[in-house]
Inverse folding.
């Protein structure tokens, strides 16, 4: 540390952040982490993780994130459950503002992940968190024996629809095209499920509700504008994610979707600022790949810090 500046501050506490924290702590860099508004990241929203090596029987997402945190803290990662409001990357040490307090750090690892995209259809704001959700695991159980719709054509939509059949009397997948991003196996699983119907060439024009909550939606065919209505008590939007880079206020280069663009390995366009996980990765978006990148970022940061002191 120089003049009270940390060696490394990690922003975000998903698999990327905790893995970066573990490696940085074990390298004796005394890392500080700001865990953000959703401590533990996206896996806090899921029940079973079956594809993270080392868990032959699978593990609950929140349980895994608690384990990751505990493991990193055991080696000295300091975690504050607070959001980073702003950064100044114009000179080193970099400045980090959290709830009005200023922190300084020689290096930064940005692991702020991504968040779900909403449709923005008429009536959506009113029903957010009531009848309309982006997290089947969190809210599915509220719709026991009810009709539910899922919007989207990717793996998430298929996964959420299949999961929701545990509660719902019927699940209808609404997709605006007839081509799916989802993998073949996921589509087949959804298609063959007796409780799931798939409607293609349909998009949500408007959400319908009464004083008790969501009652349905008006669907529109994007090809000719024809409309039909569908009944549902719950709706789950699964149309993708956007990276959380707004707080960087354009100080780091992003692509048109907002993903951070790399210059070399995990180092961004600004020397000493590293990034890992879903905030840079729109291709894989997995816990294991995010964790792998977190490891890479911590090793890159460690080597970079060493070079600065030579
Ligand atoms: C419902 C669901 C189920 C999934 N299931 C699986 C699965 O079974 N297997 C699998 O491999 N992957 C799964 N994924 C994907 C996996 O969760 C992500 O790929 C992974 O979490 C990405 O990790 P990350 O560390 O990049 O970011 P995230 O997990 O998105 O974490 C981002 C972190 O950044 C923090 N943050 C954001 N802004 C700020 C800020 N300004 N200041 C401080 N902190 C901030 C947030 O609080 C959060 O902690 C699932 C995702 C979802 C949504």
């Amino acid at each position: 540390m120089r003049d009270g500046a940390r060696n490394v501050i990690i922003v975000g506490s998903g698999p990327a952040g905790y893995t970066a924290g573990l490696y940085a702590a074990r390298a004796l860099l005394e890392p500080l982490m700001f865990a953000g508004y959703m401590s533990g990241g996206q896996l806090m929203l899921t029940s079973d993780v079956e594809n993270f090596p080392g868990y032959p029987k699978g593990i609950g997402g929140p349980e895994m994130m608690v384990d990751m945190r505990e493991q990193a803290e055991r080696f000295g990662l300091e975690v504050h459950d607070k959001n980073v409001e702003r950064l100044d990357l114009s000179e080193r040490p970099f400045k980090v503002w959290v709830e009005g307090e200023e922190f300084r750090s020689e290096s930064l690892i940005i692991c702020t992940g991504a968040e779900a995209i909403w449709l923005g259809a008429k009536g959506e704001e009113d029903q957010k968190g009531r009848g309309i959700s982006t997290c089947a695991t969190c809210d599915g159980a509220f719709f026991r024996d009810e009709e539910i719709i899922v919007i989207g054509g990717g793996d998430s939509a298929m996964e959420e629809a299949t999961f929701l059949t545990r509660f719902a009397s019927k699940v209808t997948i609404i997709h605006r095209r007839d081509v799916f991003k989802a993998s073949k196996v996921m589509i087949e699983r959804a298609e063959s499920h007796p409780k799931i119907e798939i409607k293609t060439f349909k998009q949500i024009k408007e959400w319908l509700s009464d004083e008790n909550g969501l009652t349905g939606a008006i669907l529109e065919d994007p090809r000719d504008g024809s409309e039909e209505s569908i009944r549902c008590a719950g709706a789950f939007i699964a149309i993708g994610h956007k990276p959380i880079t707004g707080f960087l206020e354009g100080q780091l280069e992003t692509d048109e979707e907002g993903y951070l663009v790399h210059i070399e390995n995990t180092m961004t366009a600004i020397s000493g600022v590293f990034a890992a996980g879903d905030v840079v990765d729109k291709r894989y978006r997995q816990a294991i790949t995010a964790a792998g990148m977190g490891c890479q970022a911590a090793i890159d940061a460690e080597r970079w810090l060493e070079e600065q002191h030579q």
